[in-house]
Amino acid sequence: MTETTTPDPSVPSTTPAGDLPPSKPRALWHHRDFRHLWAGDAFGQLGAQFTGLALPVLAVGVLQATEWQMGVLSAANMAAFLLIGLPAGAWVDRMRKRSVLITADLVRALILAGVVVAALTGTASMPLLYVAGLLLGSATVFFDVAHQSYVPTLVGIDHVVEGNAKLQATASVAQVAGPAAAGVLLRFVTSGALIAFNAVTYLLSALFVARIAHRETLPPREDRRPLVVEIREGLSFVVRQPLLRRMVACTALGNLAFGILSALEALYILRDLDLGEAALGTIFSAASVGALLGALVGRKAAEWIGEARLVPVSALAMGLPIALVPLASVLPLPPMVTLIAGLGLTFMMVVVYNIATVSFRQRLCPPRLLGRMNASVRFIVWGTMPFGGLLGGWLGSAFGVVPALWIAAIGTLLAALPVVISPLWSMTTLPTAADAEAETEPPE
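Above: the chain's sequence. Below: its structure in token form.
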């Protein structure tokens, strides 16, 4: 639905009828349904940031989790992307997106409420957090897929860029403000109370989305094709494109290494460095500023370096500053400063890399395959993260947290090899959808 500016019939026109200018689409500030989606997204993004901090703090501070247990928790949080990431896109396409969003929010609120009750009654345990993480991840998979698919339907094709920009800005603000707010709250409340507040944010998200008046028309059942056929077509496109295949390999390997880091970073900061829960929130919040900087310089970097060369350059660049994370335990600098610098620079280059590779994917893929291609890529590149979490837990238990972080840093650097050893260095521009169609369509 696209709202347009309409002339006031009470005001006489001074423009000849034949010369009337076309009406211009109004900004999305005036779009009632989008405002509700935007508000719901803001609360959902804030809730996601609180969850990412509160559950590890509960595990380390209250349940005294070991390195292996933190690895399993990290894997459980991401396992849904591996287990249901591929079919989720096709399933969501067969359902009303508004209903999926509301249901996902309510499920997440209910799960967190159960964790709060367990924490208050002293029955919380690591197995309970594993199950909660798995269920939260599953609901998030459906929410994310439905959210991305709902925006064009809700606002119309003319407002897609504006709508995505506003939602992305909200996500960036939440990434910066969320951990800091959670860290401040943890000075005064327990991790269980923070999780309760987190559940309320999901309820508010569901409330705003429920106020959306727009109703979708589902495609006829007879137009559906077998789920396996649609999944196979998307995977086939990804595998058969040489440059895309290299980028997917780079991202998947990088996420495997990041999975090791994610499993141990809270344990490292809270227990090994003994910086405290408030410091943990401050570190993540300050480092997230790097992601904002990456979003600002990404387009300019592509113009300066060339969109093709930017892929290997940014892949290498994100693997270097991450070494500051394990170095924070030995450098003669305040550990908080070292961690913020290392994570901030890494986040900045991750965003630059993502801008380059996602833009390439969107241009390369024919529109008819775009949804299935994105689902296939997400399945591959995010599917490695649960294995990274388990690997991080095992490495931390077997060799210690700091050696495991060094392995994560080296692994991030080595992950760049698929795009570093590639034709991208000698290219300036990247192929388009017309080139992809020529490669993927069978000869007549």
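Residues 180 and 216 are 38 Å apart (CA to CA).
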